[in-house]
Amino acid sequence: MSARGPWAAFWLVAGAAALFLALPVGAVAARSLMGAAGQGTGLGAWAAAFRGGALPEALLNSVLAAGLAAAIATPAGFLLAYAARCSRLPRWFRAAVSALTTLPMLLPTITYGFAIVYALGRQGLVTRLLGWQPFDIYGLGGLTLGYVVYVLPIAFLLIRNALGYVDRRYGAVARLMGDSPWRAFRTTLLRPLAGPLAAAFVQSFFLAFTDFGVPASVGGAYKTVAGLLYERMLGSLPDFGVGAAIAVCMLLPSVLGFLLLRRLERAEVRYDRPADDLPPPPCPARDALCAAAGLLAALFTLTLFCTVALVPFVEAWPYALTPTLRHVADVFADPGLRLVCANSLAAALGTAALCTLLAYAAALVTVRGALPRPAKTLIGAAATVSGCVPGMVLGIAFLLVFSGTPLSHTLALVILCNTFHFLSAPYLMMKGALEKLNARWEATGMLMGDTWLRTVLRVVTPNARDALVAVFAYCFVNAMVTVSAVIFVAGARTAVITSKIKELQHFARFDDIFVLSLLILLVNLLATALCRVATRRAARRSLP
Amino acid sequence: MLELRHLRKAFGGRPILNDLSLEIATGEIVSVLGPSGSGKTTLLNLILGLVPPDGGRILYDGEDVTATPPERRGFNIVFQDYALFPNLNARQNIEYGLRNRPGASTPEEVRALVALLGLEEHLGKRVDQLSGGQRQRVALARTLVLKPRVLLLDEPLSALDGVIKESIKARIRQIARTFRLTTVIVTHDPEEALTLSDRVLILGDGGVAQYDRPSAIVGAPANDFVRAFILRQLEIRRANLLSLFGAGAR
Fold first, then answer.
1. Can you give the residue range of the structural domain that contains B88?
2. Is pTM, for the whole model, over 0.95?
3. Which one of A37, A261, A401, B21 has the fewest CB atoms closer than 10 angstroms to its CB?
4. Share of chain B above pLDDT 90, in %
5. Does B197 fall in a domain?
6. In terms of domains, do B36 and B140 share one?
7. Looking at chain B, which residue has its C-alpha nearest residue A441?
8. B85–A459 C-beta distance less than 8 A
9. How are beta strands B75-78 and B63-64 bridged, if at all?
């Protein structure tokens, strides 16, 4: 059997991962060991990083805020997922809970920070409506809140998917055998969900720990690792050696968290064929609790989004509240801002195309290529390991390796950086989809004279269409909202919206920031809608 | 004639087939019968060339094809789950191989084959609009347009309802006779094997337990394994049917 096609895909993924993942990340680690001045070797950079106690303090602060956020987001995510999947609330209500809970994923994290400021700050929307400020938003409170907004959707999705694998018949059996509702809930729902709940906590923690957008907007004087790292690399007194050492400090816990997640995945309970035709048993108390949780979450999300949608449409919040389209017109009249919008779109489309291609090639190799096991394992590892490299670390890695090369400050580099920043989830999505397809197609095609590549193009690809569209949309949306990596990679001519937002913050141009954020939101809503239309049309085609 | 000489295959140190030798005449229908894990599917994969043997040779009309890649052996298979391509309709599935080998069948021959399999009114349907029996026939047609020298069928009846089974059985026999096609059928059902084929190969303990005409197997089982594995099942079934019809007559 000819294995030329699978080998070509293998070398594509392996070569790209070596060049744009292994090499840059290795370079960061090496740079941290080159001594403070960047010549010779030594631990000088590490010593400098820990001198003065700023880094230990920042580490502690980051762990505290991220831990708090994960501790809030995990139970909240569970409650909302439970409301969406296991309650008897009306279908539209459950759909609305899902949609509103995941809505923040369509905005950059840096925007939530500013939204929190404009909603809960001293002159904020909520503060003015209430007449008093609920809590101080600069520092731990605001930071934690921002992180929760960021990670709640992810915790929610993880737990909601896991709930889809829990068989309701077990609950019915437990009740039939005389268990109390609470005991049945514990043994047939909570216990099988222990793995996913732990995974949601770990995932939330590390997303928050490595996030840059929230501390950049509401961190205030509260030092975080991300803030410190930014300061060392792009601040007034940059020191790449110290920056590299801090980057390694951010990378190592992420690698640990990644390994922990893999462990938890293996411990996951998966029933073969969960029966979802069995409705949840009636329980008014449960439904009331779920409704309250859903309403609270909806109120919270809507408050933030209303703030974002309101502020840029008044003359000068909070002093002149006359409605105006001036700020929107200003943004579109500014050629610099028009350029970043075009850049963002181009970068997002390019990232979506490249990331989908690489994820598909990697999944084809591991699931459908007749290659030796070590080759498949290597590609699987290369594709998933990107998930444990924080965006900031990857961005710094690209900055260190590609500065001065022809790639430096090009959109191509932004696209490559985003691609390897996101690759992990698209790969896993593609792998899951390809595993569900009939395993005999390649053999069948070959016996009818196809090469492997031809069967892939004529049969596998058309049947994997929905997954490809979903992966494309996922990469597009993420590329539109990401800030952590691109901030180090985008140049003056290749700035994207999110990196521009960071810059506009310096000039306190918050109206522009919100207009640009709304633009991202609209583009992302449009992209997800288009993706839905595309997959629905495909589904309609395959209905009788 | 298809000849297997001293074929050996082990997986992870566990021998599945051990020194298997047999001959299948051109145009003959042979069923391969055996308990699960006896190497039925492995045998199919070896004949097809999807897995290489650890030892032994495969010959077709005297030519050694052991090292020939599967796509050049001229053998073909209908898998148990048919492996039809859902993005294509019935006609596109049937004509799939003709894009690579345009000369394999003339349009007239394809039309005749479609008629023989009773698929005329289903050609425009997508795979998910076809019934199990229709899918089976589309898969058969897709394989037959390439005019294989040997046709392999993996559990061709297991996914079908009782009534359709008999008509598909008749169809398979008709095709083998019409095209003088050497046909190897893997099954786990003794009744199916004994009523469908010219000769039956019973696998046990990694080798040939018995390879003979159905009447010979029923009349003179070669050993206790054949007696226990094949005849017991058939006798129980016969007893069940007789008592059923006996009770109805009373």
1. 84-147
2. no
3. A37
4. 51
5. yes
6. no
7. B83
8. yes
9. unpaired
